[in-house]
Design a protein that fits this description.
By secondary structure, the protein is mainly beta. The protein has two domains: 7-137, Elongation Factor Tu (Ef-tu), domain 3 (Beta Barrel); 144-293, Jelly Rolls (Sandwich), CATH 2.60.120.860. Helix content is 7%, strand content 42%.
């Protein structure tokens, strides 16, 4: 179910505008705190600039319900069920703000205090919960899929990285455009499919982001009918899941060093697929991602 403006959802519980749970305050979802990577050993005053990363986030949500005591107690029980202890799994905290698409951040409860004020027949209950998001990134609920065909030169001419003389013909190339409408790097799921009817040979694949210079190279045979996956989200979040795999078997050792995560920068990304082997149209690559924000 699509959310309306100012609504939130967590594990099936709907909160906010038009629901029984009025949101009094929400803090931390779109906040940003940087983990300082500077080193304090310069040759003069100051520090040596280091790599800065975003810290995990703590989201504090305060809601209020007003009504007969029996009704507010039932609502609190529903609230407790949704924001129950989760030992090892994070769930999407989904939200919708005016002028934005529906987005989510993965989080789990770390605190759930309750404040209750009793009156004669009515109960006013504030229900508060704090959620910890180890991954501070915010994702669009909608996924995007981009088909990347083999990068090749066609139509004659020379593939030269310089201006061509007037009597030469510029080559045509095949690139795909993956647009990340967020403001932070997106880490996609990359899937390579080798047609089951193919008689071509694939000894390895390289996906190149011509926009930011990132390269993903996997040096292994992909047999006809085989699907090879590269999950960059699992890699950067260290979820414990398979990263480079096929048929639930790890192919991590075939990922060519230095094994830097393949990223999609904010805006348009030009993607090129290179195939080591004889395959042309028999192998395709699909890049799946979400717009990503911090």
């Amino acid at each position: 179910m699509a959310l309306l403006d100012y609504q939130r959802s967590y594990r099936g519980l709907l909160l906010g505008e038009g629901t029984a749970y009025d949101i009094i305050e929400e803090d931390g979802v779109e906040s940003l705190t940087v983990r300082d990577g500077d080193r304090e050993f310069p040759r003069a005053s100051g520090s040596i600039p280091g790599k800065h990363y975003a810290e995990s986030k703590v989201i504090v949500l305060t809601t209020e319900v007003v009504g007969p005591l029996n009704d507010t107690e039932e609502l609190f029980n529903d609230f407790k069920k949704a924001f129950q202890l989760s030992e090892d799994e994070e769930y999407p905290y989904i939200f919708k703000n005016p002028g934005q698409d529906e987005r989510f951040i993965r989080a789990r409860p770390i605190r759930r205090p309750r404040v209750r004020t009793l009156e004669s027949e009515l109960g006013v209950t504030q229900m508060q919960v704090a959620l910890k998001a180890s991954d501070p990134r915010i994702y669009s609920s909608a996924t995007k899929n981009v088909l990347v065909s083999k990068f090749d030169v066609g139509g004659g001419g020379f593939d030269l990285p310089v201006d061509l003389p007037i009597d030469m013909v510029a080559p045509t190339t095949t690139v795909a455009v993956a647009r990340n409408d967020g403001d932070s790097y997106a880490y996609p799921l990359v899937r390579f499919f080798h047609n089951s009817d193919s008689v071509a040979q694939v000894n390895g694949v390289t996906l190149q982001n011509l926009t930011n210079g990132d390269v993903l190279t996997i040096e292994t045979t992909i047999a006809p009918g085989q699907q090879l996956y590269a999950d960059m989200d699992a890699y950067i979040r260290a979820t414990g899941g398979l990263i480079i795999y096929s048929d639930n078997s790890s192919y991590y050792s075939f990922w060519k060093l230095p094994r830097s995560p393949f990223r999609l920068s904010p805006g348009d990304n030009l993607l090129a697929l290179h195939i080591d082997g004889t395959a042309t149209t028999e192998l395709i690559c699909v890049v799946t991602f979400r717009d990503t924000y911090l």
